[in-house]
From TrEMBL:
<dbReference type="InterPro" id="IPR007138">
    <property type="entry name" value="ABM_dom"/>
</dbReference>
<dbReference type="InterPro" id="IPR011008">
    <property type="entry name" value="Dimeric_a/b-barrel"/>
</dbReference>
<dbReference type="Pfam" id="PF03992">
    <property type="entry name" value="ABM"/>
</dbReference>
<feature type="domain" description="ABM">
    <location>
        <begin position="29"/>
        <end position="92"/>
    </location>
</feature>
<protein>
    <recommendedName>
        <fullName>ABM domain-containing protein</fullName>
    </recommendedName>
</protein>
């Protein structure tokens, strides 16, 4: 898996030393009616049940919820993991909880499309 590099703010960064960090990002696109926006943002936002579930697993970094600036009915989520292996281990260990939450939130969005899994390029 490729490694992403992030400049640090320490003296070593000013000297050209870089901190290595891995990232495996899963991107989803959602479309929803305006009447469901608040409920959707709660469910998929930083304090919502998806993030609470992901936080149970080692290797989870963060989830970003993005609303399209030109189309308020379109959202993206970016679920960031340390590695593909971390994500796969989560899926294996928490499959039942994942499926139950997915079923519980069914119908919030009119469409849900997995755009892909992405690795940062150094």
């Amino acid at each position: 898996m490729p490694l992403a590099f992030r400049k640090t703010t320490s003296n070593s960064a000013r000297d050209g030393v870089q901190e290595r960090c891995m990232s495996y990002d899963i991107v989803w696109e959602f479309r929803l009616p305006a009447t469901r926006a608040s409920e959707f943002e709660h469910a998929y936002g930083p304090r919502g049940p998806w993030v609470q579930l992901f936080r149970r697993a080692p290797g989870y970094i963060e989830t970003q919820l993005l609303r399209d600036a030109e189309d308020a009915a379109r959202y993206l989520t970016v679920d960031r993991w340390e590695s593909r292996e971390s994500f796969e281990a989560f899926r294996h260990r928490h499959r039942a909880d994942y499926d139950a939450l997915d079923q519980q939130l069914e119908g919030l969005a009119t469409s849900e499309t997995r755009l892909g899994a992405f690795e940062a390029i150094p």
